[in-house]
Specification:
Helix content: 40-55%
Low-confidence stretches: 1-84, 380-384, 613-640, 642-646
Number of helices: 24
Number of strands: 15
Strand order of the largest sheet: 5-7-6-8-10-9-14-15-13-11-12
Largest sheet: 11 strands, mixed
Mean pLDDT: 81
Structural class: alpha/beta
Radius of gyration: 34 Å
Length: about 725
Amino acid sequence: MCAQCHGGCRSLIFPVSHGVFRFAKPNVRGIIQPKTQPSHASTSSIPRRLSSSSAPVRSPQNPPCRAKTLALEFPFGARSRRAPSCSRMASSGAAANLWVLLGLSIAGVLLAARRLRRPARPDHGAFIARLELLPPPQPPPPQAPHPLTGLCFAIADALNVSGYITSFGSLEWAKTHDAATQTSPVVSALVHGGAICVGKTVIDEMAYSIHGENKHFDTPTNPAASDRVPGGCSSGSAVAVAGGMVDFALGTDSIGGVRIPGAYCGVLAFRPSHAVVSNGGVIPVAPSLDTIGWFARDPTVLRRVGHLLLRLPYADIRQPRHFYIADNCFELSKIPARRLTQVVTKSVEKLFGRQVLSCVNLENYLASRISSLKNYSNGHKNGDSKFSSLLALCNAMRLLHKREFNDQHMEWINSFKPAVDARIVSNLSDNGDSAIDSCQDVRNEARLALSALLKDDGILVIPTTLGCPPKLNAKELSSESYNSQTLCLSSLASMSGCCQVCVPLGTHDKCPISVSFVARHGGDRFLLDTTQTMYATIREQVEILATSNVSSKQAMNEEAAEAAKEKGNAAFKEKQWQKAVNFYTEAIKFNGKVATYYSNRAAAFLALARYDLPLSGICFCQYHLMIWRVRSVFPTLFCYLMVHLFGPSSYRQAEADCTSAIDLDPKSVKAYLRRGTAREMLGYYKEAVDDFNHALVLEPMNKTAGIAINRLKKLFP
């Protein structure tokens, strides 16, 4: 019976969440009326010491009641306000059912909207506990103040603080573990260095995932893109820095736990070389991969924190001598490669000169240097997969991560399995049949390979992640393909133990994007110094690119053309002439206004024709002697033989390409030299001499042109 109409209506009651939907049918017309029920008491299942009044711990068992009672009132009769008769009740039954369905639909829409609309939170949901660890007093003059004076920071809830329970991203873990008795040495070092610790931040459950989602403490809101995941496992620390709540924050990184949230939230994120920062006082995930990393918005702060934690003495800044752009890795990205690489290349050119830039095919390099990767190819032989080496490295990392995590925590998980995320349990139960022994071999070989490439002054440039951060609850978060491709980028530093920094590059489609710089193991100071040196110029180039008047289509075509040219250059060096021709042709299709593309394709055509001719190599002199004799006796036959037999189409195409290059750039010495060579092989000797002479005018000391002219004058005086 309804208390409002004293029995004049009938009610349908449906329990929803913590509230009730009442669909009432009174005798009068009405509208949807919210009726607030008394809210439940907000209690925490974590011991009080973890929580504080300023930021209570959120508990799924007793959340604050936000559902309300909705009463949907609608007319029982259309023409009469009196109680309906029995004869009319049957006729109005169908209409009543429609109203009930309408009410259910409206309620469903309201619930869905409420679920999708995330309420604004003062701390973006980054913190699970507020605390305050104060630094010691400043030393008296003339001693220098503490190096981190004036900075505040937060720590991921995998680091211990004396007197506080470390929840490790799980309420069940917090219930079954005591408060820490010692503070992590890293946290103590920062506090003694002058910084103030203000709280502990959310991490993925047991620091296992890379997406930033947590069913126990809710997913922190990404300040840079509120409808996207913040990345994990150190999601709360990245959010706290991106939201301006702290100057820097600590996180843990095994397979990308600092770098991925740094990229998704648009902040600087640094993973140091493995084992150079103490992991004491941190709950282990996979000891062979674990590091403590940190986030910051300012590269100066990032460097100051690094110098304190790495205990680096003062030294002069070394400039990098090599920047290796891993162009094949950028092919993985869903973001246009030009949007990522142009900012870096322009910044490097401005600061260090173009000569330090080069491209590297990381896939081929790893395949040639890390022989033990064949054990993790999952059936892919070399060439079967476009990124087989990177994926094999990722497979080895994931196996090592799973096995070591299993060794550390499987006993506890088996005891409290119902409370653990089903995805973690499922992943750990799939042990596979791969041997773990060679994982350490992969780690050692990967470190040697990258050390040989980068040496003491090299920087490897790769994408940090596959693309923009996925949307909340997106299907791709559970996609094996997406996770593998994202992790294969982070596996480089995780498996080699090298240091890596994530550098934000603005936004694309309103989402943060970034690249990463990787230096050899132990090159942390060099990488931090280089990041600080380049950051202002990188920001300047980001703004220039954002305000450029060049159309996006034209810019993409220019980037694609340049990428095709670089691939052609690589193929040319490997003496794959036809492959080089194809790449240069592709570059010309994208952008036909660059003389270099035509000139390079002409060089490839010349090489292709030279190695196709049976009269090349040691027979070159005999060839010229023969054509001189034929020319002197049968000039017409000579021309026919030269053009149609010994002058393949490659020479004619080379001549045409050089002509196009000269039309675009009349000062191209290489184009004149290559056209002269093509004309010489076609039998157009006078024109060839003219081209070589023109090259000498542009470059008087050019030896190639001088030798060619002397050769032609001797053969054909």
